[in-house]
């Protein structure tokens, strides 16, 4: 059974280890800085899944008044295929809906077809848009 709760500072090392185990970290993103930035903006939307006191899942979300976003969905490989990722996503969907969020966006790397299929099974579809980005702060 997984308990979903807001991230706590003491979770940082476990969350970063989880992201690394799930191959979510990249050299151009410092996960410590990503956590610090999230804790400064809507920290209640940074969630972890805990089993037997150990962090085994995470999901970072946000809402800026127009769209909701989800990032860093991770479930430890040994806990996959149990509906835990779905439970986290549905929990975040409810939190965003309570805030009046009309739509959730997320980005999936093209090299991760498993994640694309996971989100499709949850009702997400590819938008007819192009994702652009510009780095303002180098990590």
Question: Layout of SSEs?
Answer:
Layout: E1 3-6, H1 12-21, H2 31-40, E2 46-51, E3 54-63, E4 68-75, H3 84-98, E5 104-106, H4 113-121
Parallel strand pairs: 4-5
Antiparallel strand pairs: 1-2, 2-3, 3-4
Structure description:
The chain has 139 residues and is α+β, with helices and mostly antiparallel strands. It has a single domain, classed as Gcn5-related N-acetyltransferase (GNAT) (Aminopeptidase, 3-Layer(aba) Sandwich), CATH 3.40.630. It is 32% helix and 22% strand. It is built from 4 helices and 5 strands; from the N terminus they run βααβββαβα. Strands 1-2-3-4-5 form a 5-stranded mixed sheet. It is globular, with a radius of gyration of 15 Å.
* Total tally of structural domains: 1
Order of helices and strands: EHHEEEHEH
In this structure, how is the largest beta sheet organized? Answer: 5 strands, mixed
Order of strands in the sheet with most strands: 1-2-3-4-5
Q: What class do helices, strands and sheet pairing give?
A: alpha+beta
Low-confidence stretches: none
Give a brief outline of the structure.
The chain has 139 residues and is of the alpha+beta class. It has helices spanning 12-21, 31-40, 84-98, 113-121; strands spanning 3-6, 46-51, 54-63, 68-75, 104-106.
Features:
alpha+beta; 5-stranded mixed β-sheet; 4 helices; 32% helix
């Amino acid at each position: 059974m997984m308990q979903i709760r807001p991230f706590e500072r003491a979770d940082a090392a476990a969350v970063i280890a989880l992201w690394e185990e799930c191959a979510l970290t990249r050299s151009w993103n410092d996960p410590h800085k990503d956590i610090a930035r999230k804790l400064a903006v809507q920290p209640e939307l940074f969630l972890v899944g805990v089993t037997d006191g150990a962090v085994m899942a995470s999901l970072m979300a946000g809402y800026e008044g127009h769209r909701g976003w989800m990032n860093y969905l991770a479930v430890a490989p040994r806990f996959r295929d149990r509906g835990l990722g779905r439970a986290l996503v549905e929990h975040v969907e409810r939190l965003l809906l309570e805030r009046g969020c009309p739509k959730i966006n997320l980005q999936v790397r093209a090299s991760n077809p498993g994640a694309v299929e996971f989100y499709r099974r949850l009702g997400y579809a590819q938008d007819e848009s192009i994702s652009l980005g510009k780095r303002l702060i180098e990590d």
